[in-house]
Amino acid sequence: MTQRDNQSHEKRFRTLAVGSTKDTSSSEKSEPSDVVAPLHLSSTFEWASENDANKHDYSRESNPTRAALEEQLARLEGGEHGLAFASGMAAISTTMLSLVPPGGHLVSSDSLYSGTEKLLTEFVAGHLGVDVEFVDAREPENVATAVDSNTDLIWAETPTNPLMRLCDVRSIADITHDYGVPVGVDSTFASPYFQSPLELGADIAVHSTTKYLNGHSDSIGGAVVTDDDEIFENLAFAQRIGLGNMLSPFDCYLVARGIKTLPARMEHHQENAMAIAHLLEAHDRVASVYYPGLESHPQHNLAAEQMSGYSGMLSFEFDGTLVELEAFIDGLELFTPGASLGGVESLVEVPSLMIPDEVSHGSATAEIPETLVRISVGIEDVDDLCEDLRTALP
Ligand code: PLP
Fold first, then answer.
1. Is 89 a pocket residue for ligand 1 (Cβ < 6 Å)?
2. Is 165 a catalytic residue?
3. Catalytic annotation, pick one of 12, 14, 60, 285
4. pLDDT value at residue 21
5. Burial class for 296, CB neighbours closer than 10 Å (0-12, 13-18, 19+)
6. Which of 126, 158, 221, 325 is least surrounded by Cβ atoms within 10 Å, i.e. has the fewest?
7. Given this model, what pLDDT does residue 360 score?
8. How many contiguous H segments (helices) and E segments (strands) does the chain have?
9. Binning pLDDT at 50, 70 and 90, where does residue 1 land?
10. 210 lines ligand 1 (CB under 6 A)
11. What is the mean predicted confidence (pLDDT) over 75-87?
12. Does 4 have pLDDT greater than 80?
């Protein structure tokens, strides 16, 4: 497996993660030079004219704490421009609203976080009249068939929530760039540590920073990174002026703080997830395990190629009734039932029991099996996690 340390960025990933939020807001040598970018809560700054030496005038438009995080996010993704949004959904919706006009054409992977699916079906298609075409993006040819020169955006998520499907970002970008169509990739499940959509050819990398980037389940946020100046200008206008959709300084501070330990956490998440995936694969009450790190995952080779690790998310199909499944969840001590993912603590979710309204039954998008269990594997002691699962499984 290739490690992120082999990448060609100027500094290696772990160094960037730790050291990239020094205070850049003051050029005065007499002022303290904080090792940690300080928290600027001020909504406004002294500002006399456009020629003012201050870089920041009003915090909706720009704020030093947010600027430090946005630079940090761009560096981690190996991109030019970073933007920090009020949530992952804010990052995704702002990207779509900025790039796809009413009545436009958007091609999306059919396996997606349920919130993105709802945004696409009910708002982008339902409200804006965009022609949204869902395709099984595991096969790049399906994207090739759907895209044409009138397409405004390709949307992909990889690995997907909760089915852990992948799409080949490089092949999709090669196909769609022939038509000049931008590709946006929601890379939340991998985090910037294990996957670099821009290096693979995508135009836009998106994250819910709520998950691995913050990593401590105490902030909701989203990020977009792009190398494309025009896309950045459009998104920055929508974020700062059109929609006012930016991350608060305090949340920026929390995410920047979380990022410093992202590499260490991701290695640990992955190590624990691999052990749990093997345990589940061998268990007779588990019908199938979906973890890209397992050789049995149908897209394991693609995962090994386009990711530098397999992250800490997995799902499996429980072999039993819903009543038995509920008893299994009740019996768990260390896996808290709940939504969200990517924090240091282990969480478990059964979409059909916990979010039944949001579970896709497969009309336009990929079907979620009734007994599917999704686990966000935390960084607790792996032996304790395995023991807990063994004890609770019937
Ligand atoms: N993208 C993925 C893959 C997600 O799993 C989620 C939330 O679970 C989001 C986006 C939305 O992020 P947020 O809850 O921060 O709006």
1. yes
2. no
3. 60
4. 57
5. exposed
6. 126
7. 76
8. 14, 12
9. very low
10. yes
11. 97
12. no
pLDDT, tens digit (0-9, with 9 covering 90-100), for 155-196: 999 999 999 999 999 999 999 999 999 999 999 999 999 999
pLDDT at residue 6, as a whole number: 47
pLDDT above 90: residue 80: yes
Distance 11 CA to ligand 1 centre (A): 29
Does 113 qualify as catalytic in the annotation? yes
* Nearest alpha-carbon partner for 239 in 250, 223, 259: 223
Amino acid, res. 336: T
Any atom of ligand 1 within 6 Å of the Cβ of 290: no
Ligand 1 within 6 A of CB of 115: yes
Rounded CA separation 327/394 (Å): 9
Q: Which atom of ligand 1 is nearest to the CA of 189?
A: 3
Q: Is 111 in the pocket of ligand 1 (CB under 6 A)?
A: no
Cis geometry, peptide bond prior to residue 159 (ω within 30 degrees of 0): yes
Ligand 1 pocket, 112 CB below 6 A? Answer: no
pLDDT for 25 beyond 80: no
Distance CA 105, CA 239 (A): 22
Predicted confidence (pLDDT) at residue 5 exceeds the cutoff of 60:
no
Cβ contacts of 341 within 8 Å, gap of 6 or more: 161, 189, 211, 313, 347, 349, 374, 376
**Which of 4, 66, 165, 186 is labelled catalytic?**
186
What are the φ/ψ torsions at residue 93 (nearest 5 degrees)? -70, -40
Q: For ligand 1, what atom is nearest to the CA of residue 188?
A: 3
- Going from the Cα of 113 to the center of ligand 1, the distance in angstroms, rounded, reads 7
Which has more confidence, 359 or 167?
167
HSE at residue 45, side-chain half, CA atoms within 13 A, is 19
Ligand 1 pocket check: which of 89, 217, 220, 255 to mutate, most ligand atoms within 8 Å of Cβ?
89
- Per the annotation, the verdict on 211 as an active-site residue is yes
Residue carrying the six token digits 């300084």: 249
Beta strands at 131-135 and 105-109: parallel, antiparallel or unpaired: parallel
Angle, vertex CA 190, rays to CA 7 and CA 9, nearest 5: 20
Q: Which two tokens stand for residue 304?
A: 């090994």
Q: Which residue among 123, 155, 188, 214 is best mutated to probe the pocket of ligand 1, counting the most ligand atoms within 8 A of its Cβ?
A: 188
For residue 287, CA distances in Å to 8, 166, 207, 273, 315 come to 41, 20, 31, 18, 11
pLDDT higher than threshold 50 for residue 3: no
